[in-house]
Amino acid sequence: MCGIAGYTGNEITGVLAEMSGTLVHRGPDALGAYNQGRIHLAHRRLSIIDLAQGAQPMQTPDGDLCIIFNGEIYNHQTLRKELEDLGHKFQTDHSDTEVLLYAWREWGEKLVARLNGMWAFCIYDKQASKLFFSRDRYGQKPLYYSIIDGEIIFASELTALRRHPGIKAETDILSLKKYFAYAFVPAPRTIFKNISKLPAAHNMIFDLTTSEHKIWRYWDYVIEPFTSIPKNPELEWGEELRTRLSEAVKLRMISDVELGVLLSGGIDSSCIAAFAVRHAREVKTFSIGFDEDTYDESPYARQVSEYLGTTHYESRLSREEARKLSPEILKQVDEPFADDSLIPTWMVCREARKKVTVALGGDGGDELFCGYLPFKVWKWARRYNIYLPRPVHRVVEHFINKLSSSRKYMSTPMKLKRFFRASGYNMKVWVPAIMAPLGFSDICDLFSDQSLTLDELYSEAIEAWDDCASEYPADRMTQYYIRLYLQNEILTKGDRASMLNSLELRCPFLDVNVADFARRIPANYRYRQGQTKYLLKKSLEPLLPSDILYRGKQGFSPPTAEWFRNKELSFTFSGRDATIDSKDFFSKMSAQHNSYECDHTRYLWSEYMLDNFQR
After folding, report:
1. What is the rounded CA–CA span in Å between residue 257 and residue 47?
2. What is the spatial distance between Cα 256 and Cα 167, in angstroms, rounded to a whole number?
3. Nearest CA-CA partner of 197 in 139, 266, 263
4. Is the pTM for the entire model greater than 0.85?
5. Cα angle, residue 154 at apex, residues 149 and 160 outer, rounded to 5°
6. What are the tens digits of pLDDT across the range 322-354?
7. Per residue in 269-313, pLDDT tens?
8. Is the dihedral of CA 207, 76, 82, 53 positive or negative?
9. Alpha-carbon distance 190 to 168, whole Å?
10. CA 20 to 30 Å from 155, out of 178, 392, 469, 592?
11. What distance in Å separates the CA atoms of residue 6 and residue 36, rounded to the nearest whole number?
12. d(CA 384, CA 386)
C-alpha cells in the first residue's frame, strides 16, 4: 500500500519531492523517484509484499517500462505463473508490482480484466510514448489528475497534486452543491475546477506525443440474476457464498507483515472475522466503543470475539477525545465528505496500527446485499409518491417537521423527516435524497440559486438508475450504492482513515468472485420480506450466533448531534463566498438543531468538514 505522484513536462526543482512528501503517511517505509526527460514519477512505500525486492518506481531490465503502483493484486501468484509459462523472466521473488509490468507487456490494456485486487497505478511505456493509468473496479484506491497546457499532473491525493505550481485550485460551485446533495463529491468531479478523479473501473491513456488523453470504463457492475432457482437456494447458494467468501479472506491474508481484522460487531465485519479464524492460528481483532449506549456496538464486538476466540483489542472514544482529535484528523482529509464515522474509523485504524500493518474490513457487504434502510422503506415511499397529491404532501411534511428531535441514534423523528423530505422527489433520486445533508430547496436557499434543477444536482444518481436494466427497485438502488456511494463515501472513508495511520485496509466482500456471485443473486434473495441481507445471513448461520446475525443495523456513527449541541464540536461558519444569505441559513439550522426542533447533524457535519478543509 503506497502513495504515488507524478507529472510530465520540464522538471521543476523540488516539486516531485514536495508532492511525494505530502504522501509520507501512505508510505513511510521508502521513497523512490524516476526522472527521465519529460517523465517525473514518485512513490512512497508501505512495505507489505516482497519487502526486500518490491521497491518502486520499478522498471523492466531493458528500461522500456516503468510503474508506480498503489494497491495489492491478490491473484498475483497465479498471474506470475501464467506469465512465466509465456516466457517472461521475473527479477523479484514474489512482487505483485512486477507482475503488472509483464502483464502490460503481454496483454496491454486488457490486463485489468485479469486482476483481482485494489489498485491505482501508472505505467510508463517508453516505446509507445504513453502513460497508462488504471483504477480498480470499485475505487478502493484514489487517483486525482489535472491536464494543463498539454501536460498531466497526478497523485493519490489532492494535497499532493496541489504542490505542483501549475495547479490553480479554484472551488467548483456545482461540485459544492452536489456535496450537500450527496454528502460527497461524485467522481469524476472534485471540489476544484480543472482537477478530476479517475472514476472507479476506468482506464486512462495519456499520449506523450500528441498530449491527448482518452478515458474509458473497462468494467461495470451489471445485475444479471440466475435464470433458474435451485430447490433450496438458501442451502445451495449459501454454501457457494461461504466458499467464495472464505477464499476471498484467505487471499487477503497473504502478507509478509502482521495482519488483523477491524471488528465492529456488525454482520459484515463479524463474517470476515469468522472466516479469518479458519485460515490463521491467531487472529487479532480491533473495535471501538462510545460512552453513549445507543451508539455503542462494542459489546457485540466483544461477543463475536469471544465466540470466535480472537485476540481482541478495544478502545473507547470519549467526547473529550473526539473534541481534541477531530480538528487534527479533519485537517488531513484530502477532500470533504460528510460521513462522521470517519472519526471512529480513524481511531480504530490508529489502534490497529499499533499491532498490525494490514487489516481486513467488512466494507462492501451492505452495498452488495441490500443492507441499508432505504431497501426497507422503498415500497412505502413509492406508494406515497404515487397516491398522495403534492399539496397534501406539503401539509404532511410540515407537521412531520414539527416533531421534536431525540438524543437517540437514528431516532424515529429523524427517520420520518428524512423519509418525507425525500418522498417529495422523483424516485430516481430518492435514495441519495433520503441520506442527503440538505434537501433540494435548502440547497437552493443556501446558495441563493433558484435556477438549480433537481436533474442537474442529482445527474449521477439519475444516470445510475437509468443504466440499470432490471425492473426491480432493489436492483436499481443497488446500482446507485455500488456505482456512487461505495466509491465516493464508504471506500474513501476507509482509505483515508487507514492510510492516515499507515495501515493497509483490505475488503474481502469486493473480491471479484464474491461480487460476481452477488450480482447473480435475485433481488428477492438479497432483500426478502423486510429482511436485509437475507441470503448472506442465511449463509452465515453455521458460523455466527443468530443474535448477531439478526439484530438491528446500527452503523458506526459517533454521537455527533450531541457534540454539536454541547459545543464540543464548534466552528466559525465561513459561508459561501461570505454571503449574508448563507450565514443566515447556517444560523437558522444551528438554532433548530440546538433546540431539538430538528436534527441537522448531517448538514452541520458537512459544514464542519468543509470548514476544516477550507482552513
Report:
1. 8
2. 38
3. 139
4. yes
5. 115
6. 777 877 788 778 888 888 889 889 999 999 999
7. 999 999 999 999 999 999 998 776 666 788 999 999 999 999 999
8. positive
9. 13
10. 178
11. 12
12. 6
Largest alpha-carbon pair distance within the chain? 73
Contact at 8 Å (CB) between 65 and 24? no
The sign of the CA dihedral 586, 587, 588, 589 is positive
Q: How many CA atoms lie less than 13 Å away from 69 in the CB half-sphere?
A: 26
Instruction: Please name the CATH architecture into which domain 233-369+481-549 falls.
Output: 3-Layer(aba) Sandwich (3.40)
Cell of 29: 517505509
pLDDT tens digits, residue range 525-555?
999 988 999 999 999 999 999 999 998 776 6
Q: What is the pLDDT of residue 326?
A: 79
Q: Which residue is associated with the grid cell 514536495?
A: 18
For the chain, residues classed under CATH 3.40.50.620 are 233-369+481-549
Give the residue ranges of DSSP H helices in 354-471: 365-368, 373-387, 390-400, 412-422, 430-435, 440-446, 454-457, 459-467
Which secondary structure element, helix H or strand E, spans residue 1, and what is its range? Answer: none
Q: Which residues are within 8 A (CB) of 289 and not within 5 positions of it... i.e. 6 or more apart?
A: 296, 297, 298, 299, 314, 315, 316, 317
Q: State whether the Cα torsion 511-512-515-520 is positive or negative.
A: negative
The DSSP code sequence of 329-371 is HHTT-SS----TTHHHHHHHHHHHHTT-SEEE--TTHHHHTT-
Exposure string for 395-427, b = 16+ CB within 10 A, e = fewer: eebeeeeebebeeebbbebbeebbbbbbbbbeb
Which residues form the catalytic set? 2
Q: Kindly give the pairing relationship between strand 65-73 and strand 58-59.
A: antiparallel
Buried b (16+ CB within 10 A) or exposed e, 22-47: bbebbbeeebbbbeeeebbbbbbbbb
Cell 498539454 sits at which residue? 150
Residue 561 has pLDDT above 50, yes or no: yes
**Least confident segment among 75-89, 176-190, 251-265, 422-436:** 422-436
Tell the residue number behind the cell numbers 431525540, with chain if given. Answer: 406
Angle between helices 96-107 and 76-85 (to 10 degrees): 50
CATH topology of domain 2-217: Glutamine Phosphoribosylpyrophosphate, subunit 1, domain 1 (3.60.20)
Asked if the model's pLDDT at residue 255 lies above 90, the reply is no
In Å, what is the CA distance from 527 to each residue of 243, 472, 533, 562? 21, 11, 6, 33
Grid cell for residue 579: 454571503
